[in-house]
Design a protein that fits this description.
The structure holds two protein chains of two kinds. Helices cover 23% and strands 19% of the residues of chain A. Chain A is of the alpha/beta class. In chain A, strand 30 (757-759) and strand 31 form a beta hairpin.
């Protein structure tokens, strides 16, 4: 879509007037960032977030270091949150539907007047919201009860009801880090399951080698997801078979297609483990399988007394009850907030029809989506980054949200919309809600009620410090309100192995579809298939052969009268007899990036993994993806070691320092007076989540090229996660972050005719944008192919251009670019140290990728400082090696070999 | 009698400068149209960016650089014929060297456009030149691209001087045989007042020899420098020492083919059958056997070295190029056939003296050499170190039409030149005729 914009000749961004402040606000210093703490609301995990505001504009999101859930890290979705704030397709003002059925803009006063009118007649109200906790949840309940209703339905597409069913009605907390034997039944805990950033950190602790041992991870499921790729052993079964498999572990029965040795290994491991942990997946079969094994070997690492906020999500039966009430005219007003049932319900069309029986439908969402477009009133809320509020993922842990910049459009806080509408209906908010605005309500909920006559100067310092920290986190607290428990459906008697079963999994970036309009998330490849900008259907080669299907063939998938067309992706990472398709795409209305991109398969999911009819159509359609070979071809690029071997260094490091030069070198090295920046990348910790890549997009103004650009291999990513597949290996999928290696003997430097590629006095390979004439020789001479060329003038449709980092040049067309080790951050740290008249401390310079990695893959520092963490790793870690070291480029990015069960090379 | 023979030479050549036929003008117009379409296509690229081409990472050089190397290569043969063969006192170069040298000039001009066309920011192309500036910025002399700038511009200047100097006596002849008017004024201006006095001929001969000596090493060095655009990188398929002789031989190979392609039709169109003897073309064909063998040897060396190096990147690359790509591997084998096998047929006397066959074979060799440049550039780039960045390339609309522009430009210039200026060096042929006459008389 970025490419389409380039073609339409959108005017380049420019400001015609710069107006300085007359009275400069104290806390805004031009050129200095202000950081505001809030909570990430891109998914229900509830990571704390801090947001960088430059000159009154938000430019970057990072994790809140104080939040115990994520401890300063954010996943790709969290990094992309800022593109939700600046979504070009945000609703800019309230809208109402005319008699003729058109949606027209209106004013808040008009809206409140009309809605207040309706409310004053005490209609029967139902409130459909996404997962909200604490303050907003309380206000919603209070608002409903002010109008005589208690129908608050927390609609999460992925509602965890089967997990609740096997865990006594709650979604428990887990301690993966303490486990020595972990089995996941299709629970993709590193991607989308419950709390991915938290579990990623815990997982990386579990996988460290201590006393020549580390925890074992087994994944059972229909698809090799990114989470499964990080397992020691994968059992890939068609959907619905996990329960039999769980039983076979206990009683040793054989399952066709599964190796007996694997079953024995798991049974043995489970029996002898001292701290086993079994994770239930989202579907009933996986949940049942996990509970069967849990009955066999109870885990101490599952805490049902500390339930996750997801416990409050409504079950499908509650939703069914709502729809049936709507159809029978028992609902007069439906208020919808952040929920999109017309997109995500399998019976979406039934819901859309039922909406017609509701007299007043109000949507408070900020983007026009499939449900919002059917509303009578659209009262756009502020996005989470513009809102006061809170979110409590676990009992006692509550993130406090605050606006991180002024509102962009004519939108209001969600809570304020509720309070104002109540006021217009004749209710006195101060009496009923004990607050005149949502901010006051929030303050009271947190125990800091706004005193009369309070102004900015007299705010309680305790409240201020809470807001600054971003929340209150303690070990104990109130449990989230329970919702329906959910019941495991009856076990299917037998699965017909001739049938093809559709396995729908949440897309790592789009989750249930809410992230589809974030263009970075469309552009960044899915970790195991490398697919972008669209949907794909994964099929095993043996299944594909029977139907003469090859990758990129267009398939028709039919179930229950609904047919969809999706291109095929043939690979061994899916069970034979299953078709794996991600959910979250195929919006018909959700902004320009999501609309028409991909296919929505949620309507087919009348049962969790329905049997489908698949037909190969004549046409073909590319699965838009990052292309290139999947295999290493014996080139030893991603190197692995076994646990036992990981204690000896076998690779020679050619140091990117003067001491690294010797007989093999024609020229002497570079002398570095102050620093030599370098980075280590621990491949053992890399789970392949692409959070670092997204952070780099955010920090460095990296352009989005759109699907056609990706197909032409013109992706602009400075940091990519290369993915190699070899099914014969015990770890068949290997991830490797590849970025500019800032080689000491950089081959890109001698070949640039104009010195646009030059070496800095601190070891960086610099790309000087305004000197580059675009011969592209440097890209050829880079063996790592990390240099990216601007093939067009890529666009940032307004208001996405507000996100551009003012510390980083926006490159024009015809110019080469690449990773700079975040030189702007290096400079900022150096300037700070200079001002404070001291040396830089180790760990003070944190590039964007290093900052956000949830598992701690990256270490960045000064190689000239022998005590820096980077130096110590390079000197002494036995797993250290350099990629393509034999080319003698002396890269300053040193990799640590991945520890696997049986290393390939 | 001698005078009559000399007069005959003059008449034949001067006869070519007559008014062009309608058909001639139409062909010229066609090439001009090709140029126009190419300019418009380029306009898209200038306005929108390099993205309108089929280029990407890893293959960021494609048809433009192929054209650059191909056209520059063609230029070398002209200088070989006019400079090197002059130093060797080869007789058969005397009839063809002007046309060959013209081919050189126009080929360099055409080639020289492509380094500009392929630039991402062509409007700052002059940063590759060492011009005085306030920031004390120099171009990077370590970069082979800057060597290119030096080599190609040197080659152009020397070739132009050599070409012009050699043409002065003939321009005077044309001047003396042209009636008054604009054309006579043009020739008068260009002939620089040549009257054919002894001192002028002495200076002429000395300068001609000096420039020939200057131009001779350029034949070897310029295309060696162009080959180092590739050989100085670390790409497998590029980084090999055979490249300099490989490219020079290939340049002469394609240049001779182009001379043949130009002159055989020219002979018919301009009715120069008695001046451009079939013997000349036979000699060029024999030379092409030599250059074809050197090119074949280079292919063999590359193959041998890929195996001998025991380098996994080198070996896998060669296998990919020869067998691994459904698109590029056939091109590789076609290239070997066209560049090596076709010229080997010139061993057969009947074939190499048949002008029709020579023309077809020469065109095939030209195509083969273009394919060779394409294979070298594109296929090496598409299959380098990290498998995740392997990728292919196919030219798109803009690149095709800009290539067409280069052909349009070259042929337009050449056909215009042939009608405006004497394309056969009359003075040299007359000199040769006088010497032969003297040799006969001495024997008698």
């Amino acid at each position: 879509m970025g490419m389409a914009a380039a073609g339409t000749g959108l005017a380049s961004v420019g400001f015609s007037r710069l107006i300085p402040f007359i009275h400069q606000p104290d806390e805004i210093i031009p050129g200095v960032s202000t950081w505001y703490a809030t909570s990430c609301r891109e998914c229900p995990a509830g990571c704390g977030m801090i947001v960088r505001n430059r000159d009154a504009r938000v430019v970057k999101c990072e994790g809140n270091p104080y939040s115990p859930v994520n401890r300063g890290k954010l996943c790709a979705r969290g990094q992309a949150a800022v593109t939700g704030l600046y979504d070009p397709d945000r609703i800019k003002s309230p809208m109402r539907r005319t008699e003729q059925g058109q949606l027209v803009e209106t004013s808040w006063d008009d809206a409140f007047a009309s809605i207040g009118n309706v409310l004053s007649r005490r209609p029967r109200i139902a409130f459909l919201t996404d997962l909200q906790t604490t303050s907003l949840n309380s206000l919603m309940k209070a608002w409903l009860s002010a109008f005589g209703s208690d129908r608050l339905i927390t609609y999460e597409t992925i509602n965890y009801e089967y997990i609740k069913a096997v865990n006594g009605g709650v979604v428990p907390s887990y301690r993966i880090d303490q486990s020595d034997f972990l089995i996941s039944f299709a629970a993709d805990f590193l991607e989308t399951w419950v709390s991915p950033v938290e579990f990623a950190r815990q997982f990386s602790v579990m996988r460290e080698v201590k006393n020549r041992k580390r925890g074992t991870f087994v994944y059972v499921g229909p698809r090799v997801s990114m989470t499964a790729a990080n397992a020691d052993l994968r059992i890939i079964l068609p959907p619905g078979m996990s329960t039999s498999f769980a039983r076979s572990i206990i009683d040793g029965r054989t399952i066709p297609g599964i190796r007996e040795s694997d079953v024995r290994t798991i049974a043995q491991g489970l029996k002898s483990a001292s701290r086993p942990l079994i994770l239930p997946g989202l579907d009933a079969d996986s949940a049942r399988a996990a509970s069967i094994l849990e009955g066999f070997r109870t885990s101490t690492l599952v805490n049902r007394n500390r339930p996750h906020a997801l416990t409050s999500s409504a079950t499908s039966s509650e939703l069914q009850a709502l729809i049936s009430d709507m159809e029978n005219g028992r609902i007069d007003m439906l208020v919808i907030y952040n929920a999109n049932p017309v997109y995500s319900l399998p019976e979406a069309s039934r819901f859309a029809k039922a909406l017609k029986h509701v007299r007043t439908v109000i949507s408070m969402y900020s983007v026009m989506d499939e449900t919002t477009t059917l509303a009578n009133w659209i009262l756009p809320s502020n996005t989470p980054l513009e809102s006061w509020g809170d979110y409590s993922p676990y009992p006692g842990q509550t993130n406090l949200m605050q606006p991180t910049m002024g509102t962009l459009f004519d939108t209001r806080q969600t809570g304020d919309i509720l309070i104002e509408s109540a006021r217009s209906a004749g209710i006195n908010p101060v009496r009923t809600f004990r607050a005149d605005s949502f901010y006051e309500f929030l303050r009271r909920q947190w125990g800091f009620p706004v005193a009369s006559g309070e102004d900015a100067e007299s705010v309680s310092p305790e409240w201020e410090s809470l807001v600054q920290r971003g929340g209150r986190w303690s070990e104990t607290g109130a449990a989230p309100p329970a919702s329906g428990t959910g019941v495991l459906p009856k076990e299917e008697s037998s699965t017909n192995r001739e049938e093809l079963r559709l396995w729908a999994f949440p897309h790592i970036y789009f989750y249930d579809g809410r992230g589809a309009n974030r263009r970075w998330l469309q552009e960044i490849p899915e970790p195991v298939t490398n697919a972008v900008w669209g949907t794909w259907a994964e099929i095993h080669p043996s299944t594909a052969r029977k139907m003469n299907i090859r990758t990129d063939d267009m398939l028709e998938i039919a179930q229950g009268g609904i047919k969809v067309q999706i291109p095929a992706f043939v690979w061994e990472g899916v069970a034979p007899g299953a078709i794996a398709v991600p959910i979250g795409e195929g919006h018909s209305k959700y902004g320009r990036f999501a609309s028409g991109t991909g296919v929505n398969i949620l309507p087919l999911l009348t049962t969790p993994y329905p049997a489908v009819k698949v037909r190969r159509l004549g046409a073909s359609k590319w699965v838009t993806r990052i292309r290139g070979s999947d295999k290493q071809h014996g080139r030893d690029i991603v190197q692995t070691v076994a646990i036992s071997e990981s204690l000896e260094r076998t690779s020679r490091i050619r140091l990117p320092l003067p001491e690294g030069y010797g007989k093999e070198d024609f020229y002497p090295g570079h002398e570095y007076k102050n620093h030599r920046w370098a980075m280590t990348v621990d491949l053992n910790k890399c789970i392949g989540c692409h959070a670092c890549e997204t952070a780099c997009y955010a920090e460095n103004n990296v352009a989005v090229v759109g699907p056609e650009g990706i197909w032409r291999r013109r992706e602009m990513t400075w940091l990519r996660i290369d993915r190699y597949i070899d099914w014969k290996e015990s770890s068949p999928i290997l991830f490797q972050p590849m970025l500019c290696q800032h080689c000491d003997a950089a081959p890109c430097e001698p070949v640039c005719p104009v010195y646009a590629s030059a070496h800095s006095d601190e070891g960086l390979n610099m790309q000087i944008y305004n000197r580059c004439v675009g011969t592209r020789y440097c890209s050829h001479n880079c063996p790592y192919k990390v240099r990216r060329f601007n093939w067009f003038d890529y666009q940032w449709p307004s208001p996405l251009h507000y996100q551009l980092n003012p510390d980083v040049t926006v490159r024009s067309r015809g110019v080469m670019e690449k990773c700079t080790f975040c030189i702007q951050r290096i400079r900022e740290a150096e300037m700070t140290a200079l001002r404070e008249n001291r040396n830089l401390r180790d760990g003070e310079v944190i590039p964007a990728c290093v900052q956000t990695c949830p598992t701690g893959v990256y270490t960045f520092g000064d190689l000239k400082d022998p005590n820096s963490k980077v130096s110590r790793i390079v000197q002494s870690d036995p797993r250290a090696y350099q990629v393509l070291a034999e080319l003698n480029t002396k890269p300053a990015v040193i990799y640590l070999k991945r520890i696997v069960e049986r290393p390939g090379r | 009698m001698t005078n009559q023979a000399l007069r005959d030479i003059d008449d034949q050549v001067l006869g070519t400068l007559g008014r062009p036929s309608i058909r001639y003008m139409l062909v010229l117009g066609l090439f001009a149209l090709l140029m126009l379409i190419g300019v418009i296509a380029y306009g898209f690229q200038y306005a929108l960016g390099m993205g309108v081409t089929g280029l990407s990472v890893p293959v960021a050089w494609g048809v433009y650089i192929t054209n650059f190397v191909w056209w520059i290569g063609i230029a070398h043969s002209g200088t070989l014929i006019s400079a090197i063969l002059y130093l060797f006192r080869t007789k058969w170069r005397n009839g063809i060297n002007r046309a060959a040298e013209a081919m050189t000039i126009f080929a360099i001009m055409t080639a020289g456009l492509f380094p500009l066309i392929h630039l991402g920011r062509v409007w700052v192309f002059y940063w590759l030149l060492p011009y005085p500036n306030w920031r004390h910025l120099w171009p990077n002399f370590k970069s082979p691209l800057v060597w290119d700038v030096v080599a190609v511009s040197t080659y152009f200047i020397v070739s132009l001087l050599f070409f012009y100097l050699g043409m002065i006596p003939d321009l005077a002849t044309v001047r003396d045989n042209t009636r008054d008017g604009r054309r006579r004024r043009l020739y008068t201006l260009l002939a620089l007042g040549w009257t054919g006095r002894y001192e002028q001929w002495r200076h002429y001969a000395r300068s001609y020899l000096a420039l020939a000596a200057l131009a001779t090493p350029l034949v070897i060095s310029v295309h060696s420098v162009v080959s180092w655009d590739f050989a100085m990188s670390l790409i497998r398929g590029w980084h090999t020492t055979i490249f300099a002789p490989y490219f020079v031989a290939g340049a002469i190979h394609s240049g001779l083919a182009m001379v043949i392609t130009l002159l055989i039709p020219l002979r018919k169109i301009l009715r120069l059958e008695r001046i451009l003897m079939p013997y000349y073309f036979e000699q060029m064909a024999l030379l092409m056997i030599l250059t074809g063998l050197i090119v074949g040897y280079s292919y063999g060396v590359e193959t041998f070295m890929s195996w001998y190096s025991a380098d996994i990147f080198e070996r896998q690359f060669w296998m990919y190029r020869a067998f691994g790509s459904w698109a590029y591997s056939p091109l590789f084998w076609i290239m070997i056939f066209l560049n090596v096998a076709v010229p080997m047929t010139f061993f057969v006397k009947k074939l190499r003296t048949n002008l029709k066959y020579l023309l077809i074979a020469a065109i095939l060799v030209n195509i083969g050499m273009w394919i060779e440049r394409f294979v070298i550039i594109v296929v090496s780039l598409s299959h380098d170190y990290l498998p995740t960045s392997w990728g292919d390339y196919a030219p798109r609309f803009v690149e095709v039409w800009v290539t067409g522009f280069s052909f349009g430009l070259f042929f337009f210039l050449f056909l215009s030149f042939v009608k405006l200026f004497p394309c056969i060096p009359m003075s040299e042929l007359k000199e040769q005729a006088i010497e032969e006459q003297r040799a006969i008389q001495e024997r008698v």
